[in-house]
Design goal:
It is built from five helices and four strands. It is an alpha+beta fold. It has a four-stranded mixed beta sheet with strand order 1-4-3-2, with helices on both faces. A hairpin with a 2-residue loop joins strand 3 and strand 4. The protein is elongated and about 80 Å long. The mean pLDDT is 87.
């Protein structure tokens, strides 16, 4: 069996999660080193296969146990990429949130969605149309 080399890619969303929780820069080098070693041991030990997993990670700078959420990315030969998509304090995670889909929804959300419309403008147009329909209705009922 050929050994897999795991590489962790830290997404902007994961970096945002950490920095907004603690007001500190994400210790990328430490997280990458530790999680790549952990993932390699799981995969090469034959105890893991899948496209998504979570792992607890002790963060020394904040003295917190964190929950890290990973999705399987592209592979290049023996190298397998893993995207760190989200970070939260470990005790904030629950099986209930996972099962209900709330965790997946959070992990699949992006920081800067590519919206082709302006939601404020769309809201104003809908409100204007609603007002016009109410006026028309009131005119018809009043006659």
């Amino acid at each position: 069996m050929e050994l897999v080399i795991s590489k962790v890619v830290i997404t902007a969303e994961a970096r945002f999660d950490y920095e907004s929780m603690f007001g500190l820069p994400l210790p990328k080098v430490d997280i990458k080193r530790e999680t790549e070693k952990y993932i390699d041991n799981l995969i090469n030990g034959g105890t893991f296969c899948g496209y998504y997993f979570r792992a607890k990670y002790y963060d020394e700078p904040t003295d917190q146990m964190l929950m890290l959420f990973f999705y399987k990315g592209d592979s290049f030969g023996r190298m397998q990429m893993w995207e760190l998509k989200g970070i939260c304090i470990a005790e904030d995670w629950s099986e209930e949130f996972e099962a209900s889909g709330q965790v997946r929804l959070w992990l699949k959300s992006v920081l800067n969605p590519n919206e082709n419309t302006d939601w404020v403008w769309d809201l104003r147009v809908r409100e204007e149309m609603r007002s016009k329909l109410l006026e028309d209705y009131n005119d018809e009922v009043g006659n």
